[in-house]
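Re: weekly structure request thread

Next one in the queue (143 aa):
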Amino acid sequence: MPTQQLVIYLLVYMVPALIIFGIGCMVLAQSPRRLEHKLMVAFSFTYCLLYIEEFIRHLLPLSSSVWMIGIFFYQIRLLTTTILFHFLIHMTKIHKHYRIPFYPYLIYVPIAIVVILTLMNVNVVDDIEFIQTAHRFLIKPII
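Done, posted below.
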């Protein structure tokens, strides 16, 4: 891989990841005991992991993309969405109005199910096939 292309990947993926991580650290430094701040740091950290995964995926050969997306990307994306959902429930105080049983543990049950199924080699997320045409890569879902 040419050095110029590596520098572009570093600028596109690692700089935003470091900025997001730095903002998360500043939020946690404000008040580390508040749940809102902990959830925002967890959200920014998982978002930072998505950027790092994309950076690593671009450095690896195309044959590794399916594995990286299936094992890593979908799990982190689900965790990011769940943390954001927990943050929204906590900030709007819905859990106090509707008396959600087993709050907040009930929110994270789908993550445990997906991780267990992934360890058992059962794919519950999309299968993706990567096709290389000339200099472009097309992502084609397998039906």
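The beta strands are 128-133, 136-141. The mean pLDDT is 81.
Next request, please.
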